[in-house]
Amino acid sequence: MAKIHPGATLVPHFRDFLPAWVARQEWYVGTGIPSLTPVGYFRFEDPAGGVGVETHLVTDGAVLYQVPMTYRDAPLQDTVPGVAEPLITTAEHSVLGTRWIYDGLADPVWLSELLGLVRSDSVSEPSRKRGVGPAEARGQRLLAGDLGMDSVVVELKRVVTVGGPLKGPGVAGVVMGAWHPDGPDAAQVSGCLAVVREVTSAK
């Protein structure tokens, strides 16, 4: 699994590159470049240990956005199709050197780990970042089957709201999230982070 390096720095920092990237995405519902505040973080573990996988929950004060990211030591040659801007940025990690930071939805490692979470009804790894309350993603398997990458599609909720998941025909699983929108000492809320659908039922 990817090793965490407490105290390491990243240049440019997330606050320097993430708002402009979010502002360019079709799912962004604001205007202009937002001022984003972290609400929570959670991680997936790459079994091979080569790719860092982390999701940021950030708010512009009105909307909560979900931004999964992967951190790689070289450019990703084969991104998952359908993502408009797979590469978010390159940055210098104080311990690991140059990192290529990708939109998680474009990275097959992120997709594999998210589906693994659903298959096993398991929960994400916590982040060690400070200043926010704990956040997590929890998989819920709803249908039998292998839930392989060729047999399902993942509908990622870029804009996250409080409430239950959408269930119905063809929904093979969901990923539910929990976070603290008003700080670590405030109440926890939950909402749907992703829906996994069988390909034959996808629209």
Summarize the structure.
The protein has 203 residues and is mainly beta. The protein has two helices and twelve strands. Strand 5 and strand 6 form a beta hairpin.
Query: Which percent bin holds the helix content?
Result: 10-25%
Please state the structural category.
mainly beta
What is the gyration radius calculated from CA atoms? 16 Å
Oligomer state of the chains in this structure: single chain
Report mean pLDDT, rounded to a whole number: 91
Specify the biggest β-sheet: 8 strands, antiparallel
Straight-line N-to-C gap? 35 Å
The secondary-structure element order is EHEEEEEHEEEEEE
Number of strands: 12
* Low-confidence regions: none
Number of helices: 2
Strand content: 35-45%
Instruction: Give the overall shape, derived from the CA principal axes.
Output: globular
Question: Please, could you describe this protein's structure?
Answer:
The chain has helices spanning 14-23, 108-119, and strands spanning 10-11, 37-45, 52-59, 64-72, 87-93, 97-103, 125-126, 136-141, 152-156, 159-160, 171-179, 189-198. Strand 5 and strand 6 (97-103) form a beta hairpin. The protein is mainly beta and 203 residues long. Strands 1, 2, 3, 4, 5, 6, 7 and 10 form an eight-stranded antiparallel β-sheet that branches. The protein has a four-stranded antiparallel β-sheet with strand order 8-11-12-9, covered by helices on one side.
Keywords:
4-stranded antiparallel sheet, 37% strand, 2 helices, 203 residues, 8-stranded antiparallel sheet
